[in-house]
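Ticket #4471: complex job returned nothing on first submit. Input attached below:
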Amino acid sequence: DVKVTQSSRYLVKRTGEKVFLECVQDMDHENMFWYRQDPGLGLRLIYFSYDVKMKEKGDIPEGYSVSREKKERFSLILESASTNQTSMYLCASSSRGSQFFGPGTRLTVL
Amino acid sequence: GDSVTQMEGPVTLSEEAFLTINCTYTATGYPSLFWYVQYPGEGLQLLLKATKADDKGSNKGFEATYRKETTSFHLEKGSVQVSDSAVYFCALSLLNDYKLSFGAGTTVTVRA
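Support reply: We reran it on our side without changes. The output follows.
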């Protein structure tokens, strides 16, 4: 089975802190994605990566950056966390059109 | 742009009732269509998919048929169980392995 893991299930940070969310997949997938999930808005794509060191902006990239130094790992970075970035963050990887999701990280920014 | 609209919830049903969740899409090309399910406290899981018109996806008693003429991909299950309580997301993708566009999600609660 495909396994996508995320470094934390719950995270609490202060406004202005730099935040790293890590995602690792074990199926050698080329494509990886970061979404945020908010009630009533569904999932919105922040960034995605189709190869090591390659990245593309999704629908809501403002305030975020990403890093993909190894194929299996895709990191989401909040350079200076703000309260409006309080959300559930979901990582996914894909092959053959179907995306596989991690369990999510619920981030609260105080 | 490409988008998915699904019926708003929440939906509350009794066990063994029939479930339908409507999903319609707008796309510039010929999308692949997906239903994902999110159980409480978990990430999303792929429930079923269809890649071309008239395809029927099915899994765990759920079915959805890709209807190009009505741009729809409605999810149905004939007899729901308490364990089907979850949030269901309809999604589309125009290119394999690239981004998915999701609907807002429909929360389904099944009562014993």
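Chain A touches chain B at residues 4, 30-31, 33, 40-45, 48, 50, 58, 90, 92, 94-104 (CB under 8 Å). Closing as resolved unless it happens again.
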